[in-house]
Design goal:
By secondary structure, the protein is an alpha+beta fold. The chain starts with a helix and ends in an 11-residue tail after the last helix. The protein has two domains: 85 residues, no CATH class; 187 residues, no CATH class. It has eleven helices and ten strands. 41% of the residues lie in helices and 14% in strands. α1 crosses α2, α2 packs antiparallel against α3 and α8 packs across α9.
Length: 293
């Protein structure tokens, strides 16, 4: 009997390993945050509504850490030791985290600080601020130079969820050039065929797509995958629909631009800051198991 149980355990573990490897070559081991049922669903080949249900449960529930094992995913902490859930950190703290910490860089040669600009694909340094609220540790620099982009526009948030939680959710926030941030506004993302404005900034474009009259924004190549995975996360976390045309482009970007070391590190650091993860950064191939966001 014990031998039979051992063999069964080995088979289950092996199945989980291969499913895991197919979905996240970047990770070397399963992540306790997602809980055992998540990996069981992957092993069983669950897709669409079943997989969406599991992901939403992981993102919205309480987690009870288990020493050397998966988290227990529960609906109520009931004073369980170490119990945690997605923590709203506030928009001001989010801006400090992004521009005064994670995307902040110090140049030894010039002895100046800079903040990474995701739309221009460069760094905004002290020289760009002309003496106004320059970058530095724990500092929110001048927002007329660089600002925080809500990849999912605030005007399109889900009113059934707390606005401040959506506004400060680090998984869809990035520092970007203030002018391009304003130009993008609340337009959807896509691949521009004809420019309606000249941006001259890191490969970003604003215009219309092929056979379409609606204006769209196209970020630089290096940022496209991040945009896609941020929006897939936000769609499930807050019950929001992605328009079909945009979704098709985002799927393409996710395939062509897998997470790099910085994006993986960002996901880990966001988990430390607000206690949840973006599953599509950990498992980008999982997008293909969901037919409609």
């Amino acid at each position: 009997m014990k031998l039979a149980k051992l063999i069964k355990s080995v088979i289950v573990f092996t199945s989980l390993f291969f499913v895991f490897a197919a979905n996240a070559a970047e990770q070397s081991q399963a992540i306790p945050y997602y809980g055992q049922e998540f990996y069981q669903d992957l092993a069983a080949g669950k897709t669409n509504a079943d997989l969406i249900f599991r992901i939403k449960s992981v993102l919205r529930s309480f987690h009870v850490p288990q020493q050397g094992n998966y988290d227990l995913i529960v609906s109520d902490c009931q004073a369980a030791k170490g119990c945690y859930s997605h923590q709203k950190i506030g928009y001001n703290s989010a801006r400090v985290w992004l521009m005064g910490k994670f995307y902040l860089s110090f140049d030894e040669g010039s002895h100046t600080w800079g903040v990474k600009d995701m739309y221009c694909d460069n760094y905004k340094t002290n020289a760009d601020f002309r003496g106004h609220s320059q970058p530095g540790p724990g500092i929110i620099p001048d927002n007329t130079v660089i600002n925080i982009e809500h990849t999912w526009p605030q005007s399109k948030f889900n009113r059934r969820f707390d606005k401040d939680t959506q506004k400060s959710d680090l998984h869809h926030l990035f520092p970007t050039d203030s002018r391009l941030n304003s130009i993008r506004g609340n337009q959807w993302f896509g691949e521009v065929e004809k420019d309606t404005q000249t941006l001259n900034c890191g490969g970003s474009r604003f215009g219309v797509g092929e056979g379409d009259s609606d204006e769209i924004f196209e970020p630089p190549q290096a940022h496209k995958g991040r945009v896609a995975r941020a929006l897939f996360y936000f769609s499930l976390r807050y019950d929001l629909q992605i328009p079909p045309d945009e979704e098709a482009v985002l799927r393409k970007w996710n395939r062509e631009n897998p997470p790099d070391a910085e994006e993986l590190d960002r996901n880990n650091k966001i988990f430390q800051a607000q206690h949840n993860r973006n599953p599509f950064v950990d498992y980008p191939n999982m997008v293909d198991s969901i037919g409609d966001f």
